[in-house]
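Predict the holo structure. Ligand: S-adenosylmethionine.
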Amino acid sequence: MATWLATAAFGLEGIVKRELKGLGVDSSAENGGARFEGDFATGFLANLSLRCADRVLLIVKETKVFGFEDLFEATKSVPWADYLPKEASFPVTGNCARSQLMSVSDCQKIVKKAIVEKLKDTYRQSWFEESGPSYPIQFNIHENNLRISINSSGDALNRRGYRTWTGEAPIRETLAAAMILLAPNHLKLPIYDPCCGTATLLIEAAFLRANRAPGLKRNFLMEDWVNVPADDFNHIRQNAASLVDYKQIGKISGSDIDKNSLELAQKHLTQAGLESYIHLEKKDIHHLELPSLPQLIITNPPYGERLSDQKSAEDIYKALSRLLKTSPGNTLCAISSHPGFERIIGRRSQHKRRLYNGRLECEYHIYLPKV
Ligand SMILES: C[S@@+](CC[C@H](N)C(=O)[O-])C[C@H]1O[C@@H](n2cnc3c(N)ncnc32)[C@H](O)[C@@H]1O
């Protein structure tokens, strides 16, 4: 058994905990993620399946540290050879906050040195080529609490493998997935994004409905590690692949005014294997008419962060308000950092949640149908 941390952006920790529960894994949410116990197969399952987590870290040490000596001894006390083979490459990165140890570069050198010393003792060799599988080591020192972990994911989990082109202001896949998971009736109602950009929200919605594990088409660093149950990993991946059912996607569509974004979106749909499941068209939201059938309008509209863009962002919110009024059966779920969003929509949202789009503090508003 090992301790793992599925890291998540501020505000998404509880959602990741819920996702883990859905996988049959008990966890506790904490600042920066959800922590769980499990074997390597469980760590792999988390990498493959979590939609809203950033990375899955294998925690190898947690203790208090107040000086370099403490940091060295704490790092050296880890049985590193249990994890790292002789040829492992082990880059060290980290951060320090509100602690006595505040020099990241000094801490980095000390952690590296302590690991090398420990490996020297165990492997009885003085030089390590670091030419083998990668075990990125991460140290975090926060209020004198040290955590040392190994990144089992590699690239961040939002890199699902379908987005190789970036649009103007694409939303992160992890945040898009969280918005879908938080939307009422997200598995049943038709979904429409009137400012779909590169279609991230629509693709994440389709993956969720099709029960397609987000990591199905990518690899994780832990798959290259030694002494891991590779057969179990293969079995988990095959099992996840067998659970995918595209027939469950239902109606998902969207539009955008920008031709270039729509071209990127179409490429993403092809990369994701969803081109025949999601319909996109070029449309100005100001001319959009939606059927009054109940549906989920879910969107990441412009925020008008720059003063020069404010008016056009506000006009889009007015158009969203019009769509709500003309189709009272619709649910609107929209994220924005604009403080006047509710005022422009003309009423308060029934549910509101603070979420971060990158570093930008936003509110995620949910307006339930009036009927
Ligand atoms: C914040 S971006 C959305 C990004 C998208 N979530 C993604 O992942 O790529 C806002 C989008 O609103 C679109 N937009 C701006 N004005 C519009 C209008 N009048 N009608 C429809 N879409 C508009 C922009 O082209 C842009 O793609």
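Residues 167-171, 194-195, 197-198, 200-201, 256-258, 261, 284-286, 300-302, 316 surround S-adenosylmethionine (CB under 6 Å). Residues 104-123 form the longest helix (20 residues).
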